[in-house]
Structure formats: structure tokens, C-alpha cells
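Sorry to interrupt, but I need a hand with the structure work. Could you write out one complete protein record for me, on any chain you like? Just paste the record in under my message, thanks.

. . .
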Amino acid sequence: MNGSHASAGTGKVNFDWRQDLATSRDLKHREVEAYGYVLGWIEDWRVQRDLPPGREAMEAWWREFAKKKDQPAWRLRQWQEAIVWYLNWLELCRKSGGTGKGIPERLKEAVHGAGARRGLALRTRQTYAGWVARFGVYAGTASRVLDEAVARDWLSHLVDKEEVAFSTQKQALNALVFFYRDVCIREVVDMQVKLRHTAKRAHVVLSKTELMGLVTKLEEIYKTPALLQYGAGLRLQELVQLRIKDVDVERGVVTIHGGKGDKDRESIIPNCLKETLLEQIAKARAFWEEDRANDSPGVALPGALSRKFSKSGTKWAWMWIFPADHLSKDPESGIVRRHHLHPKVYGEAISRAAEKAGIAKRVTSHALRHAFATHFLDGGADIRTLQELLGHTDVKTTEIYAHAAKIGNGKGVRSPLDALGAAV
């Protein structure tokens, strides 16, 4: 095994399958390229799902991409050969004292660990770890990862070649600064990269007809969350993290704690949704009673509350409005407990329903929030009220919806074609 180096302070040796594959004497150049492509694909998929390297992860990937797709026989054979090569390599790696974890995975773990020690929120740690892992794929080797010049090249690549949005550029930059400062313990970190503002894209806004078509095609379990997200104009994380104490059905008020910018605000509960929400609360109550009967750990609490009031997680007031139907391991604490509706699962359900409804737009869960804002202004509401309901710091952010409503509601901007009327 050629691609190896000692991990600082651990005494362990890490091997890099990419380097060993590139220097393999048993494979032709064409095979090296083909194996590298599919194994890189598998590793990215595995790391995103936090699966350890090994046969189980390979089998899971095979079930998702090989068995469900109509792949030609020669490609499946090539994939099998690549996987066999990797599993043999992994066995030799472990016999030699290695873990089999690639550079992106080790970077991800290092950023998560440093972030936890410094008290970063889980989502921030996940974001930083994801970007640093992507940089690890670009860098390729441990020595290049530690070279800030390579990091500058990658950031420039994101700006010039991939043309990612300005906010995305800032995320990647902040992630690398955190990596070099808090993981590599460098006192001075200057990436010397000039970020570039990109053109803002118009929001995807669903018409009322499209919205109801989407809801009709949604699986039953996701209809109430979708209607509440649209009806109250909630962000995805705000929706899934709602607790019993946050919803006052009688007053018709939903309270969002620690929203974007760590701000609290209130929004409205549609009158037509009150009865449905009470039914959802009854379902959540059944899960809560089941957990209490089984003496399961309480739900996760935000921030310092989990340390100060650890028992509060078992209280009814802190129960999720949209709980998961099973217990799962908490990614932050490792405790097996009741989690809330998974944002990715919910988001994928929204996209599936939009496709089934024949909506020819790129629909994500956030499109429901955009629809709320636009339809709210369509109904004659003032922009300052909308700003408060959406939780925008600057009214300029809210004014984007005013422009969309002015064009789209038939009461503002009018096409000259309409003036021709029946003559057309």
C-alpha cells in the first residue's frame, strides 16, 4: 500500500484507496479510471449518509443504483469488479492497522469534532463538514488539503467555474477558515479570495391551482405539514421543529423560536386548518404516551436547555407536532429517541407530489413559503405585515414578493395584448 500516512497524535496509519488504485500494477489505465469513477461515487454517497466503509455500505449502494436502474450488463460487471477490488483493498488496509476511511470522511469527522468542542450548532457543523469534505475530494491528498494555496484555487473554482451563489461562496469560505483555524490550529488564516455577487434568480411561485394539485398528490402523512407550511409561511426547519407549546390553535397563532438569525416571531394558523391540527396533535399525543410507557428518552431540547433542563424532554409541551413514527439515534448525542419529521424525507415527498401533479417547475418545500408570501399580497395585505410573518430583517427581502404579486395577480401590470380583448 503506497498511499499512506500517519494521523497526527494517534499513531494510526491511514491508507488512501485513490492513491493505491492509481499505482496498481494489476490494472490497465482504462480500468483504473473506471474503478476510480464508480468508487468515488460510492464514497461520496456513503459519506453523505454517514455509513462506515465496508460490505454493508456497498450492498446498500448496489440496491439503490444497480438494481433499480436499467443498466447494461457490461457496466454492472465493471461496477462489481470495482467493488471487489475495493473490498479486497479494505481488508488489507484493516490488517495493516488502517480504518479504510478516505480523506473526505476524515475531514468531515475532524470538523464535526472541532465544531462540537466549540459549541457550534449541529446544522452549522454539518454544513462546514460537507464543504470541507468536498474540498478534500478536490485536493485529493492530505498534503494538498493542508495547503492554503490549494484551498484558494478551489474557492476560485467555485466562483469562476461553478458560478455558485454569493451566499454559497461565503459558506464554503467560512468552512475552510474554520478548518484551518480550529482544526489545524493556525493562528492566521487569510484565504485571499474575492467573492463575487451573482445574479439573483426569481423564486419559484406556485399558482393556487398548482398548489392544490400538489397537495392532492401528496402522501397522506405529509399533507398537514405542507398545508401548515403554506398557510403560515414557514421555513422547512421551522416547520419540522415545531413543538406542542409552539402551537396555539384556539388563538390561531404559531410561534417560531430561534428562526433564521436566531429570532423569535409569530405567524398565523389558517382557520380551515385548526381542526386538522388538533387531529395531528392527538396523533403526536399517542406517540408521546407510547414513549412514556416505554420509558424512552425524551425528545432533544435546543441548545443549553438540554444541559439545564434535561428532564424537560419528556414533558408533553416539548413534544414534536410532527413526530417520526419510530425511534432513531440522535446524530448529536447518540441517544436513541423520538425525532421529528425528517426534513429531507418531507422535501423529497413535496418534489414527488409536484412531479405527479405535472407541475413544470423546480418545486422544493420552500416553494410553499414563496407561495404563501405571493398569495398573501395578492389578497391585498400590506408588505410590513408580511415582513413580520416571514421574519425578514430587511423589508427589501420582502419586496421581492411584492414585485411577483404585482405582475401575477391581474390587478397591477397589464399586458398590451389584454387591451385588444375580443379582437384577438
